[in-house]
Amino acid sequence: MSTPETFYDQVGGEATFRAIVARFYEEVAKDELLRPLYPEEDLSGAEQRLRLFLMQYWGGPQTYSEQRGHPRLRMRHAPFKIGLAERDAWLRCMRIALDEVELTRQQRDRLWQYFEMAAHSMVNSWF
Ligand code: HEM
């Protein structure tokens, strides 16, 4: 009996998430609003955490939770001031990254819908 293919497999597995997240952080590195929020000088740790989280979320290996425990993303973002401008900047970087990987229209839409919802749910500053 074969296991059903996950969305992670359908979009091309780790290589696809690696490409999206690497491109995303190239943009973050240049963004005047976002870059100062990241505590580490080297963004490679943050890049790895986001990549492993997304791989796990979409049905791939559960390495994120093995290394970091339960995601609790809202709680993990609480130390950073995330307003509407930060949310929009984050989404702008992600839009560029998503547009550059090879995906079907439906796959891209599904990922984008999720990112819009997730980014909005991370907003913790309304003033
Ligand atoms: C971590 C900013 C949205 C997933 C972080 C960090 C910052 C940050 C500053 C700490 C970097 C580090 O780990 O060294 C933001 C901002 C967002 C946003 C400004 C705008 C809305 C999101 C969204 C997701 C996400 C939508 C998921 C889809 C993560 C993950 C981590 C992280 C998985 C690492 C958590 C950990 O294991 O410690 N984010 N983030 N973030 N972010 Fe975001």
TrEMBL record:
It comes from the Bacteria. Heme binds at H120. Keywords: Heme, Hydroxylation, Iron, Metal-binding, Oxygen transport, Transport. Pfam families: Bac_globin (PF01152). GO terms for molecular function: heme binding; metal ion binding; oxygen binding; oxygen carrier activity. Its cofactor is heme. The keyword Chaperone does not apply. Belongs to the truncated hemoglobin family. Group II subfamily. PANTHER family: TWO-ON-TWO HEMOGLOBIN-3. Homododecamer. This is Group 2 truncated hemoglobin GlbO. It comes from Actinopolyspora xinjiangensis.
